[in-house]
Design brief:
By secondary structure, the chain is an alpha+beta fold. The protein has five helices and eight strands; from the N terminus they run E-E-H-E-E-H-H-E-E-H-E-E-H.
Length: about 150
């Protein structure tokens, strides 16, 4: 499944978030939540989380950056089940990290969902829009450099 679009959702008093029905089949086996790199929460399918764990385990653990990436990713990772009503309970440590209280923006980014505080998402979106030309130019050069190496 490709996760796309952006949707505003309300959390209930317990901190539960309703997963849109079109995405629920992707999380039948469970959902993994962890800190994102940009003050958001990242929601992975269990398969994607396992792939991430494999990718990080292939990096040299003698590197302090690898160890810090593993800590950042897994110290605040939670594997959850979607309840019969299609909800997940977002752990308070993740809600606090992402500054999410009663409203949440669910943003599809291809293979994962990101959960954002609505105000922080608006700031991020404005930053992306402002820098879109620089972003695409930088990434197109990176692709060119990688193709030259192969």
């Amino acid at each position: 499944m490709i996760f796309s679009g952006e949707f505003e959702h309300k959390l209930d008093k317990q901190g539960r978030l309703n997963i849109p029905s079109r995405y629920r089949t992707s999380f039948l086996k469970g959902i993994a939540l962890t800190r994102g790199y940009d003050q958001c929460i990242v929601a992975y399918t269990l398969e994607m989380m396992q792939n991430l764990a494999k990718d990080i385990s292939k990096m040299p653990n003698t590197s302090s950056y690898t160890r810090k990436l593993a800590r950042l990713t897994f110290s605040s990772a939670y594997t959850l089940d979607v309840d019969s009503n299609g909800r997940i309970l977002i752990p308070s440590v993740l809600r606090n990290y992402a500054n999410i209280s009663n409203k949440c923006m669910m943003v599809g980014t291809g293979d994962v969902l990101e959960l954002w505080d609505p105000k922080l998402w608006e700031i991020e979106k404005a930053n992306i829009n402002k820098n879109s030309e620089k972003i695409t130019e930088f990434l197109s050069k990176q692709k060119f450099i990688l193709e030259e190496r192969n």
